[in-house]
Every structure is written in C-alpha cells, then in structure tokens.
Amino acid sequence: MVSQITRGIKISVLTSFEGTYFKNYKVHFAFSYEVTIENHSKDSVQLTSRHWEIHDALNDIETVDGDGVIGKKPVLKPGELHTYSSGCLLASPYGAMKGYFNMINFTTAKTFKVLIPSFKLSAPFALN
C-alpha cells in the first residue's frame, strides 16, 4: 500500500493483479486498485473530479479525466473517509498509475489538488 497526504487529505492505494484477458485479439493484464480518501483537515471537502496517468512497460500512457469517482462526488467532513475500487487493463504485465483529485474546501470555497501517489501494477508471475 502507498499513501500520501496533501493539505490534510490522505490518499492510500492498494493494488491487486486480477488475471489476463483477451480483448481485440490481444492479451491484456487486468489490475484492480482500492483508493481510500481520508480527511485529516479541520474543514469539510468535496471531491469534484479526477485525473489519472496510466503507464505500462510498453511506454504507452493513457490519460483519464472525469467527474467524481465511480459516479460519486463524495463530501468528507473532518475525520471521515471514502473508499472505492476500480481497475484498468494494461498491454504488459508491469505498469504504474498516478494522478490527482480536484477538491473544494467548503470553509474557504477554494479548489485544490490532492496528489495520488504513484503506485506500481505488476503481475506476480512476471516478477523475478
């Protein structure tokens, strides 16, 4: 698990290899990840959007931007947390993801970015 705190918001990520799949006549490697967002600040905040950079060992980079996470824009009061799960397919058994969440602080009405730490995606059979 990797974790990082930005402006009182802690992001933790846990990953898992799910298996290989064929899609468009190619083998793909499926990974899941669980993200936990914890509000350690003194203000209520809301996640409004996300930005991901998904890298694989073949040097392909996919950028994903969107509203909320899994169709939700969670509001976190001080001390609260929100956990969600998602996944991705890579063309190789190795990769990494990183990004950020755009959030709004309800006390100051200002928006800010919360960094998502870089985390590795690796199929256990491919490790030496």
UniProtKB/TrEMBL annotation:
Signal sequence, renumbered to the chain: none
Pfam families the UniProt entry points to: DUF525
InterPro entries: ApaG-like, ApaG_domain, ApaG_sf
Entry-linked SUPFAM superfamilies: ApaG-like
Ranges for domain ApaG: 3-128
Protein name per the record: Co2+/Mg2+ efflux protein ApaG
Organism: Flavobacterium frigidarium
UniProt lineage: Bacteria, Pseudomonadati, Bacteroidota, Flavobacteriia, Flavobacteriales
